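Structure ticket #2291
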Amino acid sequence: MALGDIRLDLDGETFALQLTLEAFTEVPAQFGGFVGAFRRLAEVDVQAIASMVAIGTGKAKDAKERKRIVEKLFEGGLEEAIGKLTEWLSLLSAGGLKRKEAQSESSGE
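Resolution: structure written out below.
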């Protein structure tokens, strides 16, 4: 996992939600902005949650992966996913700034 990634454990599998430019642009495009993404989390929209996990892992366009993620959510429950996705969206919405801060802190600058 890269620095700044959010670790999400679902039914015995770890997904690394990445803070990337691709995710930064894909989330608002798919959910009508970051507010829309947070709203879908608050609504506990399973398909949206699976899509966010897929975006975070760099597999946004992979329909089979999204289906597999839905199965993992069903088996592992939604509680941890919602918390981790909230954290990921918060960091992602801040863009590269938070990632740079995390890198500076880890290198002692």
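Closing remark: Helices lie at 21-31, 34-42, 46-56, 63-76, 79-93, 96-107.
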